[in-house]
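Entry — protein

Goal — fold tokens:
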Amino acid sequence: MLVLFLLLCVATPAWSAVYHVRLDGDNAKCSGTAPSATQRGPCAWRTLQHAVLKARAGDTIKLGAGRFMERLTLRRGGTLGKPLVVQGTRSQSGDYETVLDGSTAVSAEWQAVGDGSYKVQLGYTPYSMTSKGLAIWRVGNHAWEEGPRAPGVFGIPPDEDASTALGPVKFWDGISALFGVNGGWTHLRFRNKEHPKDMQVRAAPAGAVVTISTNNVTIEGVKIVGGQYAVKVTAGAQNAVIQDNYLSHGKHRIVVEGNASGTVIQRNLLTYDGMGFADPNLPAGDWSSVSYARKVNRHRYD
């Protein structure tokens, strides 16, 4: 009987757990094992970072609805056949109800520079900046190094023309705002010279909102915004699955470094959500060779 008992113990697989994270959860009081609000025991945790430190191979972390202000690095994942799964909430119509936002509100004082532009010291170099949830185009560092070109664009009048290979456009059409960094100062200009304090400006330093530095991790059903990258799979990571997400803002939506293997990327919505894209008369996907929207699309990347 003792031998049979031992064999049964060895043959019985370990149970995989389902953990819950909610904005009204509590890391200290709750076990994370139920989707209920803060109480004690079987209720949801508050942060995803806490959940990934507790979860093990084969576990699923379910994120509730709302905006989670976190930047996350996964250093412990799953095993083959038993991945660690991070799963967001989506509505019946498919809308993304879970948002993972890697940015922070700009609370430092803006200083007027002139011509409707402003500057601020953030204490870091921003690689993503948004206004009211829409991405702001970044002026590259090389533009500052070439002389007056970068500061010059911050003083361009709202209706000034610009030249493209496809013909002239209004400079600010399809762009609406620009930011850049020079000498420790972040410069920002809105087309109509609005003050940044009235524009809900947020910023993020270099790096990804979600960094996968381990094996066998699945990220699915999450809207990830507010970072230089939405998701980054680092060198050596194996079998990451990035699927059914909404990935926006920053320089790249997904970055996979060399020597990462087995990465699966499927059914994600990849978009910039830039301020200028909000104009229904200038759709970002219009690539007709003769339309004004096509000229604006070319201008965005000049």
Q: What stands out?
A: The radius of gyration is 23 Å. Residues 1-13 have pLDDT under 50 and may be disordered. The chain has two domains: 16-101+212-271, 111-194+275-301. The longest strand covers residues 177-182.
